[in-house]
Amino acid sequence: MNILHTLLHFAGWFAALVTLPGTLELAALTIAGIFYTTRRMGTKNTDCNRIAVLIPAHNEQAGISGVIGSLHECNLPYAEVDIIVIADNCADATAEHARRAGARVLERHNLEQRGKGYALDFAFNELEGENYDAYLIVDADTRASENFLVAMHAAFASGAAAVQCGYRVSNPGDSVRTRLMDLALCGFNLLRPRGRARLGLSCGIYGNGFGLTRQTITRVPYTATSVVEDLEYHIKLVEAGIRVAYIGEAMVLGEMPAQGNAVKTQRARWEGGRILALKEQAPRLLKDLLRGRLRLLEPLLDLLLLPLTFHITLLCFTLLASDTSMRLYSCVAFAVVALHLAAAAFISGRGLRVLRDLAVAPFYMLWKLFLLPTIFLQSKKQSEWVRTARITER
Q1: Which of 75, 94, 142, 231 has the smallest set of CB atoms within 10 Å of its CB?
Q2: What is d(CA 216, CA 214) in angstroms, rounded to the nearest whole number?
Q3: What's the CA gap between 314 and 324, in Å, rounded?
Q4: DSSP bridge partners of 246
């Protein structure tokens, strides 16, 4: 029994050490995000007369016209906007459907370098000589809010070098999983960037609904090709001293899988990619931080904050430690998680209905724990474009 007691004690301390950076990050961003207020853009009036909206697409013939139509509905009378689809290694009629919907198409064929990062880098290089002032990136399963172009253009015109708008789920009513995913994105893609904006930090890039100026692309080429290329590229921006501005008044809505293997594939890819980024980026960020590059502290803490399922699971182990300090830390850390979820639920606008979904959240967490072997397999270095099946296809 003494050996078991000792092992549980050390497990609790280990869990506390692993979760402490994430708890501090979550507390700071949650509290700052609660007090976030939309800030008026400055009056720098930087020229931003031509914008290219880039849509990376891999075998998206069924839905590509939808996102193009959504962007056509966004009015921006005082700037030229070109919608450009990057048909990357497509084996269907994505390019043809995109042209019919009124978009320009760049076709790319490279079976050795496959992935969204490669597709974007290809597009930036192809368009380099066409004098676009800024680029916006939107996923192929997305619907943009009507003010998307106006809000993003205003940010560029005010001098922003990089921007990210809000990003939520377009189909939260399809299942409990999609409702929980919407709640998670309200925390990850809305509350946390609000907190960073309130603290004057770079808000992050979330792969959908972000934008970069031509000068930013020239200074920091889009050479991020990992599974989580958006996270990888954001770290490059912060290292270069470039801050991503949060444009909370605009929104993109992305489709999420509701059931079947698509859910498992997407979760394993996303969270495996973050584990890969943690293994590859954290040691280097820590070294640079110790050399005095303090702006890398928050990106490092962001990497050390595990997905909430795993963060909460490890916090449970802190309860196994026998001393009072560990139990006090557990109470504080669980309170931080509860505050984060409550703030995300408030942002979601679903009121008390969210309690119904949170009641089944433990089962969703258990499912994700069983997914751990697949997640670790996905954490190997690979950038092949693994496309998630769409609802219309299922």
Answers
A1: 75
A2: 5
A3: 17
A4: 164
Contacts of 386 (CB under 8 A, 6+ apart): 265, 269
CA dist 365 and 312 (Å) reads 9
DSSP class per residue in 204-248: ---SSSEEEEHHHHHHS-----STTHHHHHHHHHHHTTPPEEEEE
| This model's pTM is above 0.70 | yes
Tell me the per-residue pLDDT of 278-322, one tens digit each, with 9 for 90 and over: 888 999 999 999 999 999 999 999 999 999 989 999 998 888 776
User: In whole numbers, what is the pLDDT of the chain averaged over residues?
Assistant: 89
Taking the CA of residue 337 as centre, how many other CA atoms within 13 Å lie in the half-sphere pointing to its CB? 23
Across residues 351-380, what is the average pLDDT? 77
pLDDT digits (tens, 9 = 90+) for 261-278: 666 677 677 777 888 888
Fold of 50-264: Spore Coat Polysaccharide Biosynthesis Protein SpsA; Chain A (3.90.550)
